[in-house]
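hey m, so remember when u said the tokens were messed up on ur end? i reran from scratch. heres the input so u can diff it against urs
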Amino acid sequence: MILCVYALTAPSSTRAIGRGITGERLRAITAGRVTALAGELRRAPKPTMRNLRRYAAVVDALAERAPAILPARFGTCMTDLDELTLVLRSRQDALRRRLRAVRGRAQMTIRVVLGPGSDPGDDPSPGSDPGDEATQGRQFLKQRARSAARAREIPGFDPIRAAAKRWLKDERIEKRSGVATVNHLIPRSSASAYRAAVERAGARAGVRLVVSGPHPPYAFADNW
């Protein structure tokens, strides 16, 4: 038997127990001040569409009852209780910070189709010309900063970001195959107001977008 981990939460939220994708009873396993919600399985689940949908439903149910939750990536399994406890104890500080950040909040997702040439990628790598190490270090940091700024650039998106700003706790952006996915961490109670404001701003700016959520904060769990 192995332990399939669905999510992490705070010990005070251990009432958020239910059943997993195979109907297994979930357990609350606490180490320090972090609790894992896990179920015993004979083997790691296969990433079939049916299992993925069941997994999402399990995490959704847990998120509805827990004030703070960090969803685990599908198929996160530990060989036994000792391994899970070791992981939780070794990452206590980071996990507790993430749990505080998502407490009372949910993820909203905006998808925008990018136009040709709108995702230029990273800056060219610095040359190998020897020089002052401090200067090279500054150049590297500046390039990293420029790359990070460009990664946030979505044509026409500034008015949408401005409309959502009042609710934003955090933002994560991913660009893939001509689509920008913008994940916003906002108060759970503000989902309806956020959606209305974003859709109005998109219509005024002429930006075609799709808004979904509220979801558990998958994009803000930092792949613990």
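this time it looks ok to me. The longest strand covers residues 105-113. if urs says something different then somethings off w ur setup not the seq
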